[in-house]
């Protein structure tokens, strides 16, 4: 059923103008990506720096991991808050990306409680939110001891 | 200059575009419902919206439940139409604009993912090709350019990651000698991988392999045959391992690796199957062999 192989004459060619804008557009895209990379900023999405996991971490450094806990209306204490799309609509990396802002103004945590209520009205709702951070110490690339846990912010849900 | 222009527009069969287009637009549905599925929930958390550069310079609307749900409906309808190959320009451009806005909202809450570059490029270049039938073998330069752009964007994702590590840490290989994988595994390692925390040297070797592969990845654009298969196999295994160990999948980039392959064969095979099936339904077995195969 398939047509015979096309001969050279059958190639759909581009006009000079069509070729020019295409090659220029490609060059512009590459230039934009190079700019975002050198600027080391992913603010220029989609031409931002591919900086996920790009930071080196010291072999003797610390590893920090932020998360959230909550007390609930039925009296459960400090249960994990689901920081992902189908839980609160806000991901853990997004909380970490705005950590300074959340610590400075814990009332922003209200948004997370509200989003949870909007997405899961049938579930046990949050009464108090805790923004937490675990810190692990590394020595020559090995994890040493247990993590140190700190409470960074607390918000009584309205 | 001419070799460069020829490279960017080297013709591919029209059918390759048709098949790639169907795959990309169907994958898009999976993407908006499963992978970047935080956009509709984000509509409930507008206070945490921190628009990216493009959201600040263009008059893009602030996310709201109405906006994101409308976007979703338009995207689904337009992507389904575009996947069939109908209205390739109209449906294609609607998808391109809406999908871009979808991703901008998704990435404007404090975290930008880097696995969408090639897919976003794909939805922006595919409408420029126009109509493409799944059984049309005619070579097209417009289609060649579109697939080349997707290939380059796919590779740019890797080589860009390599350079990002260089820029951020001041030297090309400081990253490879660091404890970055340990850091990642402590934070989100699965049960399959946490054992490796006791063997940091394994992680350091893996870091070297990854960053070297990222820097040499542009070579893949010029590979053919078995070498190309091996190279693609390497990068796909990398994604499989990071998925199993860290839950990071990079599927939107993985899909775009298909732009390196003769996808038209899928279209031809499907057509053949379809016509055989129809043939056996409409003719008795011995009448069928008399029907001359049209050329």
Low-confidence stretches of chain B: 284-295
Shape of chain B: globular
Number of strands of chain A: 4
Helix count, DSSP H or I runs of 4 or more residues of chain B: 14
Q: What's the β-strand tally of chain B?
A: 2
- Topology order of chain B in helix (H) and strand (E) letters: HEHHHHHHEHHHHHHH
Query: Runs of chain A with pLDDT <50, length 5+?
Result: none
Question: Explain this structure to me?
Answer:
The complex is a heterodimer of chains A (158) and B (295). Chain A has 158 residues and is of the alpha+beta class. Chain A has two domains: 15-55, no CATH class; 62-156, no CATH class. Chain A contains four helices and four strands, in the order αββαααββ. The longest helix of chain A has 23 residues, at 16-38. Chain B is mainly alpha-helical and 295 residues long. Chain B has helices spanning 2-8, 14-35, 39-42, 53-57, 65-83, 88-106, 117-125, 141-169, 180-188, 200-216, 225-246, 251-256, 264-282, 285-288, and strands at 12-13, 139-140. In chain B, α2 (14-35) runs antiparallel to α5 and α5 (65-83) runs antiparallel to α6 (88-106). At the A-B interface, α1, α2 and α4 of A face α1, α3, α6, α7 and β2 of B.
Short structural description:
With 158 residues, chain A is α+β, with helices and mostly antiparallel strands. Chain A has four helices and four strands. A four-stranded antiparallel β-sheet of chain A has the order 2-1-3-4.
């Amino acid at each position: 059923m398939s047509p015979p192989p096309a001969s050279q004459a059958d190639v759909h060619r581009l006009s000079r103008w069509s070729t020019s804008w295409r090659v220029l557009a490609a060059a512009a895209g590459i230039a934009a990506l190079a700019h975002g990379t050198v600027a080391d900023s992913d603010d220029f999405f989609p031409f931002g720096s591919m900086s996920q996991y790009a930071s080196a971490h010291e072999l003797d450094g610390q590893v920090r991991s932020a998360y959230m806990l909550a007390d609930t209306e039925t009296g459960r204490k400090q249960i994990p808050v689901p920081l992902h799309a189908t839980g609160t609509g806000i991901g853990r990396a997004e909380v970490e990306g705005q950590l300074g802002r959340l610590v400075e103004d814990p009332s922003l945590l209200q948004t997370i409680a509200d989003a949870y209520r909007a997405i899961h009205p049938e579930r046990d709702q949050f009464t108090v939110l805790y923004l937490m951070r675990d810190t692990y110490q590394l020595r020559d690339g090995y994890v040493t001891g247990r993590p140190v846990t700190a409470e960074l912010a607390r918000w009584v849900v309205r | 200059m001419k070799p460069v222009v020829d490279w960017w527009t080297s013709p591919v069969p029209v059918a390759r575009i048709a098949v790639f287009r169907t795959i990309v637009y169907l994958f898009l549905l999976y993407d908006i419902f499963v992978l970047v599925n935080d956009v509709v929930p984000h509509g409930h958390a507008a206070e945490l919206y921190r628009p990216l550069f493009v959201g600040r310079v263009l008059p893009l609307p602030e996310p709201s439940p109405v906006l994101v749900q409308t976007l979703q409906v338009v995207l689904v309808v337009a992507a389904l139409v575009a996947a069939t190959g109908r209205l390739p320009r109209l449906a294609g451009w609607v998808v391109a604009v809406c999908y871009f806005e979808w991703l901008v909202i998704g990435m404007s809450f404090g975290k930008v993912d880097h696995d969408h570059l090639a897919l976003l490029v794909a939805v922006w270049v595919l409408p420029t090709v126009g109509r493409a039938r799944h059984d049309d073998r005619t070579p097209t330069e417009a289609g060649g350019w579109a697939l080349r752009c997707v290939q380059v964007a796919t590779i740019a994702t890797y080589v860009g990651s390599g350079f990002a590590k260089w820029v951020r840490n001041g030297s090309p290989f400081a990253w490879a000698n660091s404890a970055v994988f340990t850091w990642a595994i402590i934070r989100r390692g699965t049960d399959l991988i946490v054992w490796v925390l006791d063997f940091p040297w394994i992680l350091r070797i893996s870091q070297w392999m990854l960053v070297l592969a990222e820097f040499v990845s542009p070579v893949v654009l010029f590979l053919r045959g078995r070498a190309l298969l091996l190279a693609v196999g390497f990068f796909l295994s990398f994604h499989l391992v990071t998925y199993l160990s860290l839950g990071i999948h990079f599927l939107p980039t993985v899909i775009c690796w298909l732009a390196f392959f003769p996808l038209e064969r899928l279209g031809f095979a499907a057509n053949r199957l379809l016509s055989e099936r129809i043939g056996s339904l409409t003719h008795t077995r011995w009448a069928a062999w008399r029907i001359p195969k049209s050329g």
